[in-house]
Amino acid sequence: AFYNYSDNNYKVDVQPINLASGQKLPKQEVERFHDGYSSIGAQLEAGIIGKKYADKLLFGLIASGNTKDIQTGVTMDQVFGARTSRSNSVIPTIKYKKSDLFIRGLELSVYGAYNMTRNNFIDTTKLRYNWLQQTVPTSTAELARTQLKNRDNEGLATANLAYNINEHHAVSFNYVMTDFKRKSSDVEDPNNTTYQYPQRLNKQVMGLALQESYTGFTATAFTKLYVLNAKSFEQVSNGTGVATYRASATDASKLGYGAAAAYFILPKLQAKASYEHTYRLPEAIELLGDGLYVRRNSALKPEQSDNFNVGALYAARIHDKHNFSLEANYLYRNAHDFIRLDQSLNQPVDRQYINIGDVKTNGVEAEVKYNWNNKLRVGVNVTYQRIIDNERFIYVTNFQGTTKFDNLGYGYKIPNMPYLFGNADLGYSFSNVGGARNTLDLSYSLNFVEEYYLTPSQLGRNNTDIIPRQFAHNIMANYVIGTGKYNVSLECRNLTDNALFDNYLLQKPGRSFFVKLRYFISK
Questions:
Q1: In degrees, to the nearest 5, what angle opens at C-alpha 14 toward C-alphas 119 and 501?
Q2: Does position 411 have pLDDT exceeding 70, yes or no?
Q3: Rounded to the nearest 10 degrees, how much is the dihedral formed by the CA atoms of 121, 125, 131, 133?
Q4: Mean pLDDT to the nearest integer, 369-384
Q5: How far apart are CA 94 and CA 60, in angstroms?
Q6: Phi and psi at residue 290, to the nearest 5°
Q7: 124 exposure class (CB count in 10 Å sphere: 0-12, 13-18, 19+)
Q8: What is the average per-residue pLDDT within 258-266?
């Protein structure tokens, strides 16, 4: 069971709006004043283990609920003072596993869940706020009067069947199915015709793989079948230039395939390579939206990509106490109908997932690790990726038809996506602190992101819409008593209180402190 509560009233740097003139005031530090969050939940699981017909058969139930104030839209320019959201979920689950099913070496594992979630978004206060908590009256609500209720039901089923043919060969079959359904209603808008249309997304992925393993060499070849069935609605013209709606459907069946191999060139040096022709099926939030921050896009298509990876790993153990590893990888990705979350400059309230016809990615990553005597550990990793929009034309479709435009982003980096980032960590573990078998672990970590563009870099002369360079320093102390029955953790995130942002320039919390107490009943 758990309970969380936070006011989230940290300070942010913004330009408040003068509600009388509509003009922006000078940048200043203010407090987030309507961003409270609380959640509660519990999980129960029971079943049998170690039986002839099942190694594990468990039935579970998860129940949770939360309340969240809505402080902003998707940018810091849109601020609210009374909008709220509430949700509750009930999720029954089942887990099953059996080794040597019918024959020796055949293993089956199954997982199932059914998520019943109720979301409620409320905007009924007839006021408009700014960051200084000043208000002016409005006619209906802060944005648009609503008490929207979404009833979301989602089933999930996974199954994996694996068979070890012999010590060198194995075959496996994997199946994943999700089925999402939504029903919407709003007492403030009871005659909304869009609520009568079905909103459903069914996805299935079936995979068959053959593994081969010898001393110093492993290889896998696989194929996957992707099936998508979606129902929603779209905006169309009624013949007089006025928008209306009609039901829409999306059906797709795609075949993917690939292979991966790893080989020890030397006892301490391993080379790796893989290729995959794959598809990414849209998620429910991407296709149907969430009613709050994400607009629906019933025309969203599956993303197709060809991915190639090659890399090497060097690992050495010196004098039994020193462990050192160095890994480097190169990635090439050619994606069609690339799915990304798009933020329009004139739309500060919500965003929409869209397809970009052709996107090419070249990237490299490297990681170095060192461990001394299982006490001192040091690690550094860095990633550089060049993600380029390679689509010459953009096609915009609405209820009036399809229009073709030159793509002004052709040949430029995709905005809102970091291209250079990395992490570093340093830790030391002390044994027998305050008692036999007690352990004290002290650690420090650094997260770094180089500045990147918030909006397309080529738009406007000397575009300054950037997300600045970010450094986050974190420290943590973890104390474990005995066999781990009692645990105490102290953590400080963003120790130096630097300004941190997400990919769309929403400011994150400054310096924050956390205390975690854990007690295991059965240990």
A1: 65
A2: yes
A3: -140
A4: 98
A5: 6
A6: -125, 0
A7: middle
A8: 98
State the total domains in the chain: 1
- Residue 394: name the closest of 342, 466, 452, 461 by CA: 342
Residue 464 pLDDT exceeds 80: no
Q: Please give the C-alpha separations between residue 170 and each of 55, 97, 210, in angstroms, as whole numbers.
A: 21, 18, 6
Take residue 484 and report the two structure tokens written for it.
């781990």
The whole model's pTM is what? Answer: 0.91
Distance of alpha carbon 214 from alpha carbon 347, whole angstroms: 56
Q: What would the mean pLDDT of 376-395 be, rounded to a whole number?
A: 95
Rounded to whole angstroms, the Cα distance separating 356 from 336 reads: 7
Residue 344 has pLDDT above 80, yes or no: no
Domain assignment present for 428? no
C-beta separation of 114 from 120 below 8 A: no
Write phi, then psi, for 509 (nearest 5 degrees): -60, 150
Nearest to 331 by CA among 298, 292, 305: 305
* Of 344 and 192, more confident: 192
The number of residues making up the chain comes to 523
Query: What average pLDDT does the structure give for the chain?
Result: 94
CB-CB contact of 243 with 233 (8 Å): no
Helix (H, G, I), strand (E, B) or coil at 130: coil
Residue 1 has a pLDDT of 85
Residue 99 DSSP symbol: S
- Structural domain includes residue 320: no
Query: Alpha-carbon distance 86 to 229, whole Å?
Result: 29
Element (H, E) at 306: strand 303-318
Q: Which residues pair with 128 in a beta bridge?
A: 136
Tokens 């002390």: give the residue: 430
Q: Which domain holds residue 100?
A: 1-187
State the DSSP string of 218-267: EEEEEEEEEEEEEEEEEEEE-SSS-EEEEEEEEEEEEEEEEEEEEEEEET
- The SS3 of residue 402 is strand
- Check: CB of residue 67 under 8 Å from CB of residue 94: no
Q: Cα-flanking dihedrals φ and ψ of residue 172, to 5°?
A: -145, 150
Query: Does position 437 have pLDDT exceeding 80, yes or no?
Result: yes
Secondary structure (3-state) at 436: coil
Confidence class for position 239, pLDDT limits 50, 70, 90: confident
56-69/84-98 β-pairing: antiparallel
The answer to whether position 123 is within a domain reads yes
Provide the token pair at 108: 């089956």
Asked whether residue 366 is domain-assigned, the answer is: no
* Per-residue buried b or exposed e for 86-102, using 16+ beta carbons within 10 Å of the residue's own CB: ebbbebebbbbbbeebe
| Pairing between β-strand 37-49 and β-strand 2-6 as defined by DSSP bridges | antiparallel
